[in-house]
Amino acid sequence: MAYENILVFREGAVGRVQLNRPQALNALNFRLMTELVEAFREMERDPGIGCLLLHGNEKAFAAGADIKEMAELGAIDMYTRDYIELWDEVARIKKPIVAAVSGYCLGGGLELAMICDIIVASETAKFGQPEINIGVLPGAGGTQRLTRAVGKSLAMEMVLTGRMLTAQEALAAGLVSRVVPVEVYLSEAQKLAGEIASKSPVALRLAKEAVLQAFEGSLSSGLAYERRLFAMAFASEDQKEGMRAFTEKRKPEWKGR
Ligand code: CO8
Q1: pTM of the full predicted structure?
Q2: Half-sphere exposure (CA, 13 Å, Cβ side) for 93?
Q3: 20, 57, 67: which to mutate for ligand 1, most atoms within 8 A of CB?
Q4: What superkingdom does the record give (predicted)?
Q5: Whose CA is nearest to atom 10 of ligand 1?
Q6: pLDDT (tens digit, 9 = 90+) per residue, 37-57?
Q7: What is the pLDDT of residue 161?
Q8: Which atom of ligand 1 approaches the CA of 87 most closely?
Q9: Is the minimum distance from the CB of 128 to ligand 1 under 6 angstroms?
Q10: Of 74, 123, 178, 238, which sees the most CB atoms within 10 A?
Q11: In the chain, what percentage of residues exceed pLDDT 70?
């Protein structure tokens, strides 16, 4: 597929995608989301890539789903078009995804960032679910993922008023993992993605799956799930290599199996 709305880069073991509709503050139309899913799937298949990185530009990560594209759709169109499912497809990616966020990160844009595994924010980032201001509610997972990320009270305030959080507020609420100056937000996220990509692919996959299980079901089922995946790690050569390398005081050489 020739991409019109995203730019795709490969930097070492990091696959990087830039959302690229700056004239619309990277509003996520159907075509852009389709391209993003396709690019991520290709990176997922590439054994040389260990971590994915997603970002927009300094002014906007993404200002939401494309309102102009949605405005005249009816309920059945919205329910049966596989538009929102494209967010679910991103959530099915098994490799870790880092989001680097600067400027507006709103609506479907925040929902996309929250599907990513780690959010690195620039000091200028603004996070919000402003759908209430256009007569709807978050529709690509926001009511669920935001509530789990920041707790009920703040999620309710954001969803019911549309108020945007500053980067510092998002940090205090646990929505993002760090806040850095805008000049370095992308390079910091690249460094982080590079560090993640240097780890054992098999351990990364198990670890991501186990952490995500914390969002599903009860604590006891999550702990049991983690226990099974932890045991499964001991079937990998990377576990043997990792622990032997530690004992022998050398760097591990990952095999990815
Ligand atoms: N959709 C379409 N176009 C947009 C969007 C958007 N979400 N956001 C900005 N744009 C466009 C503007 O229309 C404008 O285009 P034009 O120059 O042709 O008029 C251009 O981007 C620049 O925007 P502004 O002139 O408005 O820029 P400002 O700096 O004045 O304002 C804001 C920035 C505050 C971010 C403002 O643009 C805004 O409020 N945008 C909308 C934010 C919003 O409501 N987002 C939620 C959308 S709904 C959603 O995401 C639901 C997702 C769940 C379901 C997904 C299913 C498909």
Answers
A1: 0.95
A2: 30
A3: 67
A4: Bacteria
A5: 24
A6: 999 999 999 999 999 999 999
A7: 97
A8: 55
A9: no
A10: 238
A11: 100
